[in-house]
Amino acid sequence: MKPHLIPYCFLLFVGVSLFCGTFLDKPSHADPLTGVRSMTTAGGGVRADSPKGRETAGMALVPRFPSDLSTEDQENVDCLLQSYPVILRVERDSTGLWLLLRSGDRVFYGPNVAVLPENAVLSSDVRDSMRVLYPLEPDRPATPEGFAPGRTRPYAFLMALYGRTAAAVKKRIRTVYALRQKWHFVPEAGEAFLRAAAELEGKCGKDPSLRSWLKSSGTFQWRRIAGEPHLSAHSFGIAFDIGLQKGAAYWRWSPLTSHPMQKTFSSDIVSAFEKQGFIWGGKWHEYDIMHFEYRPELICKALRRKNAGASFRPGSSADVVHEPAVHY
Ligand SMILES: [Zn+2]
Question: Are residues 231 and 176 in contact, defined by beta-carbon separation less than 8 angstroms?
């Protein structure tokens, strides 16, 4: 080789090496459940651009959940990670699986071996709170005893997410102006509510009778569930009530074991809120027709069951309208 060509050959070699190092030695694959692409590194971990892994200082790679979860736990955990970005990862110890949060809190997900509760319970671990599949609109199945998807709540998780005391939750509450009224939510639920409200404003334009169903009869309030020892979801700033003036009923106030409004309540309203991560209390045996509650992990799981592989990420809708409304 002529001596004056040596520097050019060297540069060519460096260029090819960099190209191969960047693109060729890291096989890329799509996660079969989430459809999200991730890249496996030489160390066998998963890069931060995947929901399965995050990169820590010094390039140590931490998997986001154990690799041997059951199919249903895998589905639950995927939905929890998608719905709550504050969850860093899921860890296992001899007692079971734990959600590790950005705050440093560890919340019990469930024992290593799932056990069905003998009776319907209102307070449970996270796995049990996701057990009964929530039916998405237009489904309005019968609600026999024991069918109340989402009415069982994982209180330790809700407290870690939103606050353990009235004062702690109150600090995070924001006023949202939408549908011609004030509402009070934690920011996560408030932003989802605004997206649903934007859709409903459009629907009210076509059908003005809807608006009379959209009057608030309560949002944030630190209180117990009527007739129960447990805290209401309203305590965490994730719930609201509508339709009370129109006769929306609560099971303890009504002699009916199922209520006609469980079938007739506007599907436009229910579906607008479901799309943004809210469940409706009209789909419970112990019906609460006026009640909606932000539980995006349940909507995520329902969507994935309904359309295999569908993913749900709160706030992912393309046509989100942020009204000049959220006051921080
Ligand atoms: Zn309520």
Answer: no
Phi-psi region of 276 (alpha: psi -120 to 50; beta: other; left: phi over 0): alpha
pLDDT at 122: 80
Side-by-side strand order, sheet with 326-327: 181-185, 174-178, 326-327
Domain spans of the chain, in order of start: 44-115, 137-327
pTM of the model: 0.78
Phi then psi for residue 259, to 5 deg, are: -115, 140
Residues with CB under 5 A from ligand 1 (ion): 239, 241, 291
Give me 162's structure tokens: 């939103």
pLDDT score for 5: 55
Number of residues that this document lists for the chain: 328
Q: Report, as ranges of residue numbers, the positions in the chain whose pLDDT lies below 50.
A: 9-57, 316-328
Can you read off the two tokens belonging to residue 273? 């809120």
Question: What tens digit of pLDDT does each residue of 79-128 get?
Answer: 999 999 999 999 999 999 999 999 999 999 999 988 877 666 787 899 99
Element (H, E) at 270: helix 267-274
Cα 220 to Cα 162, 175, 215, 259, 274, distances in angstroms: 12, 10, 15, 26, 19
Expressed in angstroms and rounded, the spacing between residue 132 Cα and the centre of ligand 1 is 20
Tell how far the Cα of 315 is from the centroid of ligand 1, in angstroms. Answer: 23
- Pairing outcome for strands 174-178 and 181-185: antiparallel
